[in-house]
Amino acid sequence: MFLSILPEYQNKLSTDYKKQALPRGGADRFDYPLLFVLALTVGALIYRQIANPMLTAGNSVFNLWLWYDVFAFVLLGFGILLLLWQVSFALLYKPFAKLETVQLPTLTVVIPAYNEGSQILDTVRSIMASDYPKEKLQVICVDDGSKDDTWRWIRAAYFEYSGAIIIIKQPYNQGKRAALMAGFAKSTGDVIVTIDSDSEALPDTLALMASPFIHDDRVGSVAGHVRVLNLKDGIIQKFLKYHLPVRLTLSV
Predict the structure, then answer these.
(1) Any alpha helices (H) in the chain, and if so which ranges?
(2) Pick from 104, 216, 217, 232: most CB atoms within 10 A?
(3) How large is the average pLDDT for residues 34-38?
(4) Per-state percent for the chain, helix, strand, coil, to nearest 5
(5) What are the angstrom distances between the C-alpha of 140 and each of 62, 127, 169, 188, 240?
(6) At 56, is the secondary structure helix, strand, or coil?
(7) Are 237 and 244 in contact (CB under 8 A)?
(8) What's the first-to-final CA gap in the chain, in angstroms?
(9) pTM exceeds 0.85
(10) Which residues make Cβ contacts (< 8 Å) with residue 186, sequence separation at least 6?
């Protein structure tokens, strides 16, 4: 289903469509105010250096040290503005409300896996434990030619849920993109969610990710908020806790 309607989505995302259907908003509305404030900052710094220079070398605009000073202040001012600009995203962010069950669209979850072993079973269990209505949920697991026992664990998930999931085995490793496309070819949902086989979802993850598509038809994609699952396993996991952009959990 997804592949059959892909050309339609590609047409909708053409340049002309985006100009007409997606008015400037969100982060874009900060562009001109930021440039205006930056211009005022540069002007004020230049005027200050000429009228009352910080350096004793003179106040001539041809003095090289004066421009070094101006350049340093411009960088400082720009950095502060950029920081405030980014902070404003968090302050102004308003998440879409979670839809009622009857309003949710049909949804397909595609899980590509390569040499994940037993972790794939935990991933499937987290998806199947979702509060998303089961009659609207399709789950597809794709083994991308794993060399370990991943396929055995995928089959274990299949039998655990009495065939309620679709399983696909690639003949050899072709890469994540090919595994996803194999899953997309079997998908029937109006919305497709992909999740790595080393990740787990909270019960409300799927509903929260599907809701924006119904609230606003301009939404083309949604990303989950990742948290590190195995924080106690090493320094890298602790580092990722503070650097990964809170609905999915990741095992590193």
Answers:
(1) 2-12, 15-21, 31-51, 64-92, 119-128, 150-160, 176-186, 205-215, 235-241
(2) 104
(3) 64
(4) 50, 10, 35
(5) 68, 11, 11, 10, 28
(6) coil
(7) no
(8) 33
(9) no
(10) 140, 166, 168
In this structure, which amino acid lies at residue 97? A
Higher model confidence: residue 121 or residue 18?
A: 121
Tell me the CATH number for domain 101-250.
3.90.550.10
Contact 218, 22 (CB under 8 A): yes
The secondary structure of 174-185 as a DSSP string is: --HHHHHHHHHH
Distance CA 64, CA 45 (A): 15
- Is 25 a residue whose pLDDT tops 60? no
Take residue 138 and report the two structure tokens written for it.
Answer: 């399709």
Kindly state the tokens that stand for 210: 């599907």
Mention every residue, 6+ apart, whose C-beta is less than 8 A from residue 40. Answer: none
Place of tokens 């606003």: 216
Residue 45 · residue 74 · CB < 8 Å:
yes
